[in-house]
Amino acid sequence: MSASFRFLFHQQTLWLSPARCIFWEEKKILILSDLHLGKSGHFRKSGIAIPQNIFKNDLQTLFAQVQFFNPEIVLITGDLFHSVANKEIDFFLKWRNDMPSRKFILVKGNHDILSQKKYEEAQIEVFGDHLLINPFCFVHDIANHCVEPGASQFTFSGHIHPGIKLKGPGNQSLMFPCFYFGKKFAVLPSFSAFTGLAKIRPSISDHIFAIVEKSIIQIQ
């Protein structure tokens, strides 16, 4: 298991994992976003030859992170699934039933369009647009906000699949997925490797952690 980065933030201990998730130590919650389970199957249905091992690798990575951190809760900030049900999603439901004691929470994203019955079968507690667990709020899209009175002003989100461009000698540059922490919100990297990256332009006061191979590198 690759080493995680310990980040003390808002008096809480967050372990940033190179597997693109965060373990919130005080609450024993594993936080991740944008798994897009079933996406490769959705593409194959459309005649696009996407290898199924993409889906299997993502699911194996999730299982490894659950085994390593042993969270009481797995919290997904949107886009757990990619589209309507297919064989890959059915496989995930079977996998989920092998861990009945582990609580799964989903803050729905724009791709989470399964029927309520599917979420119930998977024993997933679903929230419509936000979830408040003090001192943080969780949404899928940072355009949404916690609307509860007295809600935390700091929000965790996903959706945009943030990436940071790093330059090397000779002006070579590469984009890497990253964790972005601004003054009022954080954006998690996409947990799935089968997504693109949206280049971010951080300000000098932001905290950026790039995921380079199996390491976390603090950029600023």
UniProtKB/TrEMBL annotation:
<protein>
    <submittedName>
        <fullName>Ligase-associated DNA damage response endonuclease PdeM</fullName>
        <ecNumber>3.1.-.-</ecNumber>
    </submittedName>
</protein>
<dbReference type="InterPro" id="IPR004843">
    <property type="entry name" value="Calcineurin-like_PHP"/>
</dbReference>
<dbReference type="GO" id="GO:0004519">
    <property type="term" value="F:endonuclease activity"/>
</dbReference>
<keyword id="KW-0436">Ligase</keyword>
<dbReference type="InterPro" id="IPR029052">
    <property type="entry name" value="Metallo-depent_PP-like"/>
</dbReference>
<keyword id="KW-0540">Nuclease</keyword>
<dbReference type="InterPro" id="IPR026336">
    <property type="entry name" value="PdeM-like"/>
</dbReference>
<keyword id="KW-0255">Endonuclease</keyword>
<dbReference type="Pfam" id="PF00149">
    <property type="entry name" value="Metallophos"/>
</dbReference>
<dbReference type="GO" id="GO:0016787">
    <property type="term" value="F:hydrolase activity"/>
</dbReference>
<dbReference type="InterPro" id="IPR024173">
    <property type="entry name" value="Pesterase_MJ0037-like"/>
</dbReference>
<keyword id="KW-0378">Hydrolase</keyword>
<dbReference type="GO" id="GO:0016874">
    <property type="term" value="F:ligase activity"/>
</dbReference>
<feature type="domain" description="Calcineurin-like phosphoesterase">
    <location>
        <begin position="28"/>
        <end position="124"/>
    </location>
</feature>
